[in-house]
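quick one before i forget lol
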Amino acid sequence: MTSFKKLLAVCASEDVAIKHLTMLSICAVFTDIIPGYRIRLPTARELEVKVSREVKKLRDYEAAFLLYYQKYLKVLEGASKGAFSVFSCFFIFVSPCPAWSTLVLTTFQSPARSSSSLCSA
C-alpha cells in the first residue's frame, strides 16, 4: 500500500501528461485489487472484540485500502476541471465494479459531500 502514497504524490506533478497517466495507472491498480464486496471500517464495538491475526490483517488491509481510495477520490475531485482523466478513470473504474460505482458516482454528483463520508459509509 505504500506504493499508493508514491503514486498519489506524482499526481501533484505540474506536467499534465504525467498527472493524467498517473491517475489512469492508479485507476488500473484499484480496478485489479478492488474486492467484490463492500468494505467498511469496523465500529468501536467491533474493534473491542478479540479477533484472530488473519481477521486483524484483513481489517488493516481494508482500512489502508479505504484510506488510499479516499485520497484517490480527492485527487480526482481536484482534477475535475481536467475532464479527460476524471471521466476516463470514472468509466474504467465503474464498468467492472458495479458495487463501487455508487461511491464514485456520488462523489461527482454532489460535490458538497466529502470523500471521507463516502469511505466510511
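fyi Residues 8 and 74 are 10 Å apart (CA to CA).
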